[in-house]
Amino acid sequence: MADAIEALEDSLSGSDIHAPDRSHLDTGTGDLLLMPAWADDVAGVKLVTVAPGNPERKLPLVQGVYVLFEQPTLTPVALFDATALTALRTGAVSGVATKHLAREDASYLVIFGAGVQAHAHLDAMVAAREIDKVRVVSRSPDGARALVETATEMGLDADVRAADVVQRAAIVCTCTTSPVPVFDGKLLSPGVHINAIGSYTPSARELDDFVIDHATVVVDTLTALSESGDLVAPMEAGRLSAENVRDLATVVKEGPGRTSDAEITVFKSVGAAFEDLIVARAAARRL
């Protein structure tokens, strides 16, 4: 995770990667996504599916494959499990955002959700900040206990709590499939940083209007403004302006990140093909 965060941060500070908007295909039972990207030295494409009914089947919500090609011959050089790659890069992108947006002394982490992304974000937050307390909020008792056990094995003070625990949080990660806000934004303390990664469609949101009204908003890609209900709904209601939203690459290259200890910051991630390419390239080099 630490290596993935470093690779993303380095590439975002001077990226030459090209990536068109991803293609969506509604299969009737879920989404099939096509996510290509290329740079001078590599090209790649992720074929990934999101099947909302899979958790009930004891199968991953997200599945797929990633193929990496070498430039200039476009020879395929690596094939990756897209589930693992997506978890790693999504957590790592939030890790980069946390390094630039969370308070330096942030140590109290609250995670909503207990699936693959919740585990990835636990790893990412520990890599980005000196975390000592972890609180898990989840509709899945077994999943929550498993995540707490993992955090405990990492030497952290971990427990399962209700949603109102956000009032103590310095960092909040929302890693759910919820179509409605998962906590009351009025409970947040000044200076909290939020990584919101669950909502990737205009009809779903994890954050309420209060959060967006009172936060500085950064996105992984500006397509989040049209893809995520966390931002689409406030924009349509006139509560949020696109001019007041910056992308993470700009923050990394130009700053500023956090401007005061009392500032509430939100990083909204919907996932982008350039992120997959950066992490896949770094993994292939390691291999």
Features:
single chain; five-stranded antiparallel sheet; globular; alpha/beta; 287 residues; ornithine cyclodeaminase, domain 1; Rossmann fold; 13 strands
User: What is the string of SSEs from the N terminus onward?
Assistant: HEEEEEHEHEHEEEHEHHEHEH
Report how far apart the termini are.
15 Å
Derived structural class = alpha/beta
Rg: 18 Å
Please, could you describe this protein's structure?
With 287 residues, the chain is an alpha/beta fold. It folds into two domains: 96 residues, ornithine cyclodeaminase, domain 1; 167 residues, NAD(P)-binding Rossmann-like Domain (Rossmann fold). The protein is built from nine helices and 13 strands. The chain has an eight-stranded parallel beta sheet with strand order 8-7-6-9-10-13-11-12. Helix 1 crosses helix 9.
Entry summary:
The chain has 287 residues and is an alpha/beta fold. The protein has 9 helices and 13 strands.
Topology:
Blueprint: H1 2-12, E1 23-26, E2 31-38, E3 42-50, E4 62-70, E5 75-81, H2 82-101, E6 108-112, H3 116-128, E7 133-137, H4 141-153, E8 157-160, E9 171-174, E10 193-196, H5 209-213, E11 215-219, H6 224-227, H7 229-236, E12 245-247, H8 248-254, E13 264-268, H9 273-286
Parallel strand pairs: 6-7, 6-9, 7-8, 9-10, 10-13, 11-12, 11-13
Antiparallel strand pairs: 1-2, 2-3, 3-4, 4-5
Helix pairs in contact: 1-2, 1-9, 2-3, 2-9
